[in-house]
């Protein structure tokens, strides 16, 4: 499934309501999901296993960039001086990416790109080619799997998981629970917006699906971090076939 992500805020027939963001592109997301509380759950020495420079990270669904910026500072603090660290942040929403670029204080090390990873990944390959790499060392995906699942169904979710498991060495994922899906439906109905059909989805426990059915046998869950204050867990996966 493909959709035009250049101006996704204008897709609704009604005036855009921040709480009715159909792609998770909330304009004030970090007012409700604290950057600092998320970072507190992530050990700053997460990247110390990487001895090769540069270390490349892909942040999927970067929103307005606050967490991407915080993640760079948080992980950079423990890396040796001779290891360079670069992040590519991507999001569907061109308005959010504009905000990312305007507030970017690490312009030499953080790049932002508007793109739909489900329809075109060419920009990812171009980024990797700049560093003569074929994989990202770390891929982060915070509270994004639900939106991919809602728009692309079970097959789309599985395709996404397979794709990132091949694209990254380590995967740091924060999947939403089924209660979040139901909350989206209630919110959409309350705001009288077009909603989603949950009955079509057979995968009801994304966390269990990740842990038991990750698409590459060589991808293993190596750590579960503590839950955030909004009751979501962070999972770290490793691709054993990665260099």
TrEMBL record:
It is an enzyme of class 2 (transferase). InterPro entries: Bin3-like, Bin3_C, BIN3_SAM-bd_dom, SAM-dependent_MTases_sf. GO terms for biological process: methylation; negative regulation of pre-miRNA processing. Keywords: Methyltransferase, S-adenosyl-L-methionine, Transferase. Its EC number is 2.1.1.-. One of its GO terms (cellular component) is cytoplasm. Residues 36-242 form the Bin3-type SAM domain. One of its GO terms (molecular function) is O-methyltransferase activity. It holds the Pfam family Bin3. Belongs to the methyltransferase superfamily. This is RNA methyltransferase. It comes from Caerostris extrusa (Bark spider).
């Amino acid at each position: 499934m493909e959709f035009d992500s250049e101006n996704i805020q204008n897709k609704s027939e009604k005036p855009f309501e921040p709480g009715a963001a159909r792609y998770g592109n909330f304009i004030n997301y970090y007012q409700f999901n604290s950057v600092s509380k998320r970072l507190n759950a992530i050990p700053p020495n997460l990247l110390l296993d990487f001895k090769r420079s540069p270390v490349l990270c892909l942040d999927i669904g970067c929103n307005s960039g606050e967490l991407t910026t915080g993640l760079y500072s948080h992980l950079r603090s423990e890396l040796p001086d001779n290891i360079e660290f670069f992040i590519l942040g991507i999001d569907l929403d061109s308005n959010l990416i504009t905000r990312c670029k305007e507030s970017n204080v690490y312009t030499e090390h953080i790049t932002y790109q508007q793109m739909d990873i489900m329809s075109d990944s060419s920009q990812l390959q171009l980024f990797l080619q700049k560093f003569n790499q074929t994989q990202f060392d770390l891929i982060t995906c915070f509270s994004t799997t639900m939106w991919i699942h809602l728009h692309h169904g079970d097959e789309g979710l599985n395709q996404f998981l397979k794709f990132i498991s091949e694209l990254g060495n380590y995967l740091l994922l924060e999947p939403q629970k089924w209660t979040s899906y139901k909350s989206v439906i209630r919110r959409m109905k309350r705001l009288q917006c077009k909603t989603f059909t949950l009955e079509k989805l057979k995968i009801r426990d994304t966390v269990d699906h990740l842990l038991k059915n990750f698409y590459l046998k060589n991808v293993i869950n190596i750590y579960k971090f503590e839950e955030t204050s909004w009751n979501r867990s962070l999972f770290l996966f490793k691709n054993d076939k990665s260099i």
